[in-house]
Amino acid sequence: MHLAQLQNDKFVIYGRRWASGFHDAIVQMCTREGFSPEIVQETGEMYTAIALVAAGVGVAILPQSVVLAQSHNIVTKPLPSSAGISEIAVAIRKGESSSLVHSFVRVAETYRDGR
Q1: Which of 65, 74, 79, 115 has the fewest CB atoms nearer than 10 Å to its CB?
Q2: Which residue range forms the structural domain that includes residue 31?
């Protein structure tokens, strides 16, 4: 699917006040494809965005992990990697001593950048 195919659709978007980087990345992806998204609803919860899509309010661009967890009554279409990426991070408590946590961080670092 090409992002430009959504240029005439209404968008449900994660609100800028809750995640400015994510919001701006979506708007920039659309802009690179030659259109400005018509944002009809902003939300502070990604799962609420999915519910709004299922209710017919509009389309949403969300992380695949969120969509796959709640794909009831919606159709999902992956965007090409050229559309952009969403950065994530692992946060741990300062001075964390759990070997399980440190093992998780090592695994996350191993798979960073799609390796």
Answers
A1: 115
A2: 3-83
Mean pLDDT, residues 69-89 taken together: 69
In terms of Cα–Cα distance, which of 44, 73, 78 is closest to 61?
78
103 belongs to a structural domain: no
- H/E stretch holding 11: strand 10-14
Position 42 in a domain: yes
Distance of CA 50 to the CA centre of its chain: 11
Asked if pLDDT for residue 52 goes beyond 80, the answer is yes
Residue 92: name the closest of 101, 80, 100, 79 by CA.
Answer: 101
Can you give the CATH number for the domain in which 17 is found? 3.40.190.10
Instruction: Give the mean model confidence (pLDDT) for residues 15-43.
Output: 91
Q: How many CB atoms lie within 10 A of CB 6?
A: 21
pLDDT digits (tens, 9 = 90+) for 7-23: 999 999 989 898 888 88
Mean pLDDT of the chain: 83
Instruction: Tally the domains of the chain.
Output: 1
